[in-house]
Amino acid sequence: MFGDNCGDDIQNVVLDIEEDVCRQTSDTEGEMLPLDQIEDNNVNITDLDTLSVSDFLNDLDSQSSHNTSPVNVDSDEIDEDIESQNKREIALAAVLENLHISCKFKFVLTKKVYFKYKRRLVSMVLVDRIQIELGAQEPWPKDVKLFQPYEIEQILLPDNANCLAVQAFLKMCNLEFQVEPRANAEAMSPSGKVPFIKAGAFVVSELEPIVQFVNNKGITLTDKLDPEMKSDMRAYMSLVHNVMEVAELYICWCDKETYNEVTSVRYGSIYPWPLNHIQNRVKRAQVIKKLKVLGWYQKTMSEVFQEVENCCQALTDRLEDKDFFFGDKPTELDALVFGHLFTILTTPLPNSHIANIVRNYPILINLIQRIERDYFKRETKH
Amino acid sequence: MGTVHAKSEENAPILPTIPQEHIKSEPAQHQDQREIFLDGVKARVDKIHVDGLARTKDDIIEDCIRDLFKAADFQDVLLRAHRARLKLDELGCFKNIAVFIDTSKGQGASPDGLEVTFNVTEHKRVTGGVTTQVGNNEGALLIGLRAPNLFGRGERVQLEYSHGSKRTTNFNVAFIKPMRGKYRPMFTTSVFQSNAEWPVSGYKQLDRGLLFDFGFHSTALIKHNIQWEAAIRDLAVLSRNTSFEVREQAGLSLKSALRHIISIDLRDDLIFPTSGSLLQLTSEVAGLGGDVGFLKNEFFIQGNYSLVEDFVLQGTLSGGFMRGLSNDMKIGMSDMYYLGGPLTLRGFQMRGVGPHSEGDALGSMAYWASGLHLFSPLPFRPGRGGFGDLFKTHLFITAGNVGDFSLSDKNLIDSLTASVRISYGVGIALRLGNMARVEVNYCFPHTFEKGDQIHPGIQFGIGVQFV
């Protein structure tokens, strides 16, 4: 079943799917909806997660028990009713979510695309499952390391936000870890994104998978939350991902002044001449492509700031006068919000407007100060 | 014999008639002294014709054939004509070269005068083809497109794409310019992209770069190549199970390196030589720009001795040593040395000797490997004189070691031989065209260390340079 596909990188599959879906969207064969639109249509993510993933896996299991050889499905052979197709679409979307694939949108896929990527996903789902099951049996190792780019000379705003969010989460869980800066952290990461942690034999990247990994060890910040609150929390987390992170990417790579003065200098700092210029261009093209898919590239600076403002307002409304977003204990949402807002407030940029926007929300500022004081000040006494 | 053979068959019968003319003029009992006789015939080349030139410029042709005028006797003429033909062939402009020698007639003809005619056929403007190619224990399909003799002086542009059986892909565009001069200099510049996967080391690497190569002969048999290579190399982790030590190496690097290769090839055959030796020395300095820095020296020696008829003893010794230039400079995994596999130490997995991390082979800074082979024809000589001659049986013993040896170590010999790996076996070797050797061996790893990945039993190898 694994065949030669077990070496496949999730990142590659996602890139391929993204590309395919982009092409399909333009051909109007398929349809792609950004996550927030799906939420507007009242699709409950948690339901998808619990129901359809098991369906999908059962589906896979029956497939894999019937065929020992790799699944070869021609589009002609497929003869299924619309209902199961819908299920499939949802299931794939949920699996993508379950695999913590970093695409920040959901797909409504045609049969063709689904079967094209199914085989590749199957092996990864199995690998992932095995890994999670194995990982769950061991306690939190002593020598956990968190890998991220160099903070002073290299890291960029969105990466820094994510790294800080993971650090905050681990500290909230009271788990020991060491920060290990590496120039090539991005290339080392299994998903191509920072940060990632190395716990024993496991390498896990990005916040959500790390949260999942920690949960599998029996450590969780959300045990007191009921399912509805959990799905709320996940919705807010995707809101932060979809607005704050994308806005940070936009400012870093699309605002000329910031790109020239900060981004290009820092991103290229780890490469020798002339590789730094080449890599800056390559990375910028990637980011722009992603922003185009998300529909942000066409936005003006003021529209981006408006989005950030809306996001801050939504977060403020949720927080109200509570200590943390969900009661008196922090959750991963608090870690994520802290990561992003703290980075935005403390990173000097030529265009400081985004920091000024955040400063207009004192409730959020209080939250961040509280988290910083409780979880970061203890060790770092400088 | 001193006769000049043309490449194509139909011209061959014409050639022997010329010396016979001279032989006939002497008494027949001197038949056994023919060579001395040819030596004694005074001859002078009056005229040289080159027929069939269209695009090729005169000056480079003149360079190739000028020597012919210096010939004093007939044998000299034949030898020089042969050499001139080789030079013309080396230009790469012609697909066919035929040589005719005739007595000189007409006005101004000297008494011993000869006329030499080179009948050449030029290549077409663009040629191409699909061929197979054999590389590092892998076969590859090669699709090539060439524009030979672009500006009339042997310049050519070639475009090649190859796809290997082990997911290796290569793309290469090269411009080659032979230059005039007695050292036969040749300038090559190429742009390449190559993609290789190394499951045994858990990584894949994409190289994109430029290569300038300047080749020349300091004497007839000693060939030099001076190269400058600049490449952007993207090392990526192959799978989730790749060891963390390999993962740490992931990312981009820029290599800029100067290389000097000397090769002296005195062997009588490329694949199954019966006598002669080969010496190849490579020195490389990386770190002139870029972030990869090291100094690297390698050698490869092969000697062949014919014991009795068709029984050939072949001994091979190769080794390499490298060191980093500074702590700021990286050394890539692909720059380092590995040992083991069907081309080096038989009876071990590819890269199976030396340090490993979670099953992934890690490179070392030095290695040596040697092999001793006894080649013999197939038992009972089936297909003698034809198909059977493509095969040989061989007994072999190979030995080697790999590790981070240091030249300053006082007990260098001791450390080189401390954990030597030895394997032996028997097998059949096959000549594949005139480009590669295929081996099917039954191997017995004899001495090995704990972490080595051995491969006893049948092992299949295909390649050009074997230890």
TrEMBL record, chain A:
SUPFAM superfamilies: GST C-terminal domain-like (SSF47616). Residues 163-283 form the Mitochondrial outer membrane transport complex Sam37/metaxin N-terminal domain. It comes from the Eukaryota. GO terms for cellular component: SAM complex. InterPro entries: Glutathione-S-Trfase_C_sf (IPR036282), Glutathione_S-Trfase (IPR040079), Metaxin_GST (IPR033468), Mito_Protein_Transport_Metaxin (IPR050931), Sam37/metaxin_N (IPR019564). It is found in: Mitochondrion outer membrane. One of its GO terms (biological process) is protein transport. Residues 309-371 form the Metaxin glutathione S-transferase domain. Pfam families: GST_C_6, Tom37. Keywords: Membrane, Mitochondrion, Mitochondrion outer membrane, Protein transport, Transport. PANTHER family: METAXIN RELATED, METAXIN-2. Belongs to the metaxin family. This is Metaxin-2-like Protein. It comes from Tribolium castaneum.
From TrEMBL, chain B:
GO terms for cellular component: mitochondrial outer membrane. The keyword Membrane applies. Residues 149-466 form the Bacterial surface antigen (D15) domain. InterPro entries: Bac_surfAg_D15, D15-like. Pfam families: Omp85. This is SAM50-like protein CG7639. Gene3D superfamilies: membrane protein fhac: a member of the omp85/tpsb transporter family (2.40.160.50). It comes from Tribolium castaneum (Red flour beetle). It is a multi-pass membrane protein. It is found in: Mitochondrion outer membrane. PANTHER family: SORTING AND ASSEMBLY MACHINERY COMPONENT 50 HOMOLOG, SORTING AND ASSEMBLY MACHINERY SAMM50 PROTEIN FAMILY MEMBER. Keywords: Membrane, Mitochondrion, Mitochondrion outer membrane, Transmembrane, Transmembrane beta strand. GO terms for biological process: protein insertion into mitochondrial outer membrane. Belongs to the SAM50/omp85 family.
